[in-house]
Amino acid sequence: MKFFVDTADTDAIAELNDLGMVDGVTTNPSLIFKSGRDIKEVTKQICDMVSGPVSAETVALDADGMIAEGRELAKIADNITIKVPLTWAGLKACKVLSGEGRMVNVTLCFSANQALLAAKAGATFISPFIGRLDDLNLDGMDLIEEIRTIYDNYDFETEILAASIRSVNHMKEAALIGADVATAPPNVIKAMANHALTDKGLDAFLKDWEKTGQKIL
Ligand code: E4P
Questions:
Q1: Which pairs count as long-range contacts for 95-98, CB under 8 Å and 24+ apart, including other chains?
Q2: Ligand 1 center from residue 28 Cα (angstroms)
Q3: pLDDT band of 178, cuts 50, 70, 90
Q4: Contact assessment for residue 39 and residue 55, using Cβ atoms and an 8 Å cutoff
Q5: Ligand 1 centre from 104 Cα, in Å?
Q6: CATH class label, 2-212
Q7: Is the four-CA dihedral 117, 123, 125, 129 of positive or negative sign?
Q8: What is the pLDDT of residue 52?
Q9: Domains of the chain by residue range
């Protein structure tokens, strides 16, 4: 499973990128707002750091507006993926932009039928939002499973990009189901390294080591 980082925080991206943990980046208008930076300037900096796809989201509501904004965002760098919402207008924009050979990420997907439409419209990525379904007491992972089955049934090439990930369990479950990509905030990716037994074991080893009175260096 590829790891995308769901942030516009360039310091956080750099730290994970140095470890080889960043296969791509996703941003959205809320994350750009949170960064406090200009969308083109911060997206360019991210694209210079990361060689994989970097999603930048359109904000127009009509297809022509999304297409124009998508073409403008695509000028930032070759690895820009244009993010459009899963609306009828977004599907039209997806069809046109993917037809021009551009990468398109169709976002705000909450149903298997929406994902089926996005694949038929030529989406490079479909972004089902797990956490926001969980927030409504639904199981976001069921959606990932359904889309995986449908895409495999018909050999769709659209990649499933599990989004709105809130926990390390989401990461594990997305990988078990076979999501192609998971996009997660930096703190969730870093938390995957944590285990209480690792900390406990390390503590015991260090206590015993101290008793030996030895030094390695
Ligand atoms: C995905 O591309 C979105 O940017 C993101 O995953 C949304 O996550 P949230 O529901 O935690 O805001």
A1: 95/121, 95/122, 96/63, 96/67, 97/66, 97/67, 97/70, 97/71, 98/122, 98/123, 98/124
A2: 8
A3: very high
A4: no
A5: 16
A6: alpha beta
A7: negative
A8: 98
A9: 2-212
Pocket lined around ligand 1, Cβ cut-off 6 Å: 6, 26, 28, 107, 127, 129, 131-132, 163-164, 183
Nearest CA to ligand 1 atom 7: 164
pLDDT tens profile 32-78: 999 999 999 999 999 999 999 999 999 999 999 999 999 999 999 99
Amino acid type, 192 = M
Q: For residue 152, how many other CB atoms are within 10 A of its CB? A: 10
Q: Which residues contact 140 (CB under 8 A, 6 or more apart)?
A: 128, 129, 130, 131, 132, 133, 134, 164, 170
If you write DSSP's letter for every residue of 52-96 in order, what string do you get?
S-EEEE---SSHHHHHHHHHHHHTS-TTEEEEEESSHHHHHHHHH
Q: Which atom of ligand 1 is nearest to the CA of 4?
A: 2
83 annotated active-site: yes
Confidence class of residue 150 from pLDDT cuts 50, 70 and 90?
Answer: very high
